[in-house]
Amino acid sequence: QRAASGPLLDEISLWPLPQKFQSSAVAFKLSPARFQIVQAKQSSAGPSCSILENAFRLETFSQLVYEDDYGVNNINKTDISDFPRFAHRGILLDSSRHFLPLKVILANLEAMAMNKFNVFHWHIVDDHSFPYMSRTFPELSQKGAYHPFTHVYTPSDVKMVIEFARMRGIRVIPEFDTPGHTESWGNGIKDLLTPCYSDSSPSGAFGPVNPILNSSYDFMTQFFKEISTVFPDAYIHLGGDEVDFSCWESNPDIQRFMVQQGFGTDYSKLESFYIQRLLDIVAATKKGYMVWQEVFDNGVKLKADTQIHVWKGRPQYQDEMAQVTAAGFNALLSTPWYLNRISYGQDWVNIYKADPQNFTGTDAQKKLVIGGEACLWGEYVDATNLTPRLWPRASAVAERLWSDKSVTDVDNAYNRLVQHRCRMVKRGIPAEPLFVGHCRQEYKGL
């Protein structure tokens, strides 16, 4: 029997859990016609801040509202003081392995807002396809996308994603990964990629960006100038991961260059040579940059504000986090949060237990951890299965990055997350179930 004083506790299951939260049994009925949210007298934002005005219909408050047996909306007297534990709380989506229609990206930005994520890391291009339509180099998508009209993001698509995200407090950080992961770039830009050799003649295959030609850097200068104007965020992700040296090693022109530069046969020095020049090009556009951990591991000279993205070392990523922060760089963690890796059972628990500050280091080092990202790589993911694969597993990452580090009770989290998942389903997001059970309102399909 339910007391008249308010809901069963599990019905106001807040996710992610606020920093300070006190609810009383005093309940109020909500009248949609007369209800409004106002700013406190001491608020620093003026009433004309349109983003805040829109955001007022956002997340924690809506989670406090519950329906009684008669369908009336109620809310209990509640005091909340809230702020995020980490500043960078991101989701990476990969739109190269499979093209992701605009509708799917927007739906997931909506879901991100419900979970208080604030960074959309758009891994927009890769080896397999180049769907970003460049104004400066239209042939990149014309020749590099799966289809030049249906499988591309036009300038207005990109603008829409950025604006839709901005209204939900989400930054859009694009990733244009070089010198590796660039096969699709070569279709549209002649001589950008390194010709691979078999014995003494070209094999017809191509490797990473050719780092010994001035034309490569001229192209990057123009390309990143465009990117810096299209994407307003202060940061661009430059990749720099998984560079395969075998093609460089096979190429006689590159072998000669290695000798001239005194690099011997250490091709990580050639990679560093390329990345160093690229970083200078991007810095000239007044943008900061993020890179995958290999760039740091290979000893490239980096600007002090570079953000190092740790993804390797399952399960021993702690050493890398310690090294990156000991060197004074901001660190982002993704290693335990590669959500494209799936297994039978409740894998959200291990996702939930991973903590970005769980490594041996000083307090000053821990402060350099700016947050983390859940990554959903696209080899086996497209519009048909992206949303249920991502949610509610990404919600576990969301709470880890938002709530106080003492919030680690898995049983309590399970009860709240089941409710939160039902809330997403009620709002039309096909988030997959955690375990056996049911929602009061089941998913209605598309």
From TrEMBL:
Cellular component per GO, a single term: cortical granule
Q: Care to name a GO molecular-function term for this sequence?
A: beta-N-acetylhexosaminidase activity
Is Hydrolase there in the keyword field?
yes
> Which EC number(s) are documented for this chain?
3.2.1.52
Sorted keywords for this record are: Cytoplasmic vesicle, Disulfide bond, Glycoprotein, Hydrolase, Lipid metabolism, Lysosome, Signal
Q: Where in the cell is it found?
A: Cytoplasmic vesicle, Secretory vesicle, Cortical granule; Lysosome
Q: Where is the Glycoside hydrolase family 20 catalytic domain?
A: 86-404
Mind telling me which InterPro entries this protein's record contains? Beta_hexosaminidase_sua/sub, GH, Glyco_hydro_20_cat, Hex-like_dom2
Presence of the UniProt keyword Disulfide bond in the record: yes
Judged by the first EC level, this protein's enzyme class is hydrolase
Give TM segment ranges: none
The record's active-site residues are: E242 (proton donor)
Give the reaction(s) catalysed.
Hydrolysis of terminal non-reducing N-acetyl-D-hexosamine residues in N-acetyl-beta-D-hexosaminides; N-acetyl-beta-D-galactosaminyl-(1->4)-beta-D-3-sulfogalactosyl-(1->4)-beta-D-glucosyl-(1<->1')-ceramide + H2O = a beta-D-3-sulfogalactosyl-(1->4)-beta-D-glucosyl-(1<->1')-ceramide + N-acetyl-beta-D-galactosamine; a ganglioside GM2 (d18:1(4E)) + H2O = a ganglioside GM3 (d18:1(4E)) + N-acetyl-beta-D-galactosamine; N-acetyl-beta-D-6-sulfogalactosaminyl-(1->4)-alpha-L-iduronyl-(1->3)-N-acetyl-D-6-sulfogalactosamine + H2O = alpha-L-iduronyl-(1->3)-N-acetyl-D-6-sulfogalactosamine + N-acetyl-D-6-sulfogalactosamine
Protein family membership: Belongs to the glycosyl hydrolase 20 family.
This molecule's function is given as: Hydrolyzes the non-reducing end N-acetyl-D-hexosamine and/or sulfated N-acetyl-D-hexosamine of glycoconjugates, such as the oligosaccharide moieties from proteins and neutral glycolipids, or from certain mucopolysaccharides. The isozyme B does not hydrolyze each of these substrates, however hydrolyzes efficiently neutral oligosaccharide. Only the isozyme A is responsible for the degradation of GM2 gangliosides in the presence of GM2A. During fertilization is responsible, at least in part, for the zona block to polyspermy.
Could you give the subunit structure recorded for this chain? There are 3 forms of beta-hexosaminidase: hexosaminidase A is a heterodimer composed of one subunit alpha and one subunit beta (chain A and B); hexosaminidase B is a homodimer of two beta subunits (two chains A and B); hexosaminidase S is a homodimer of two alpha subunits. The composition of the dimer (isozyme A versus isozyme S) has a significant effect on the substrate specificity of the alpha subunit active site.
The name this protein carries in UniProt is Beta-hexosaminidase subunit beta
| Gene label | LOC107570862
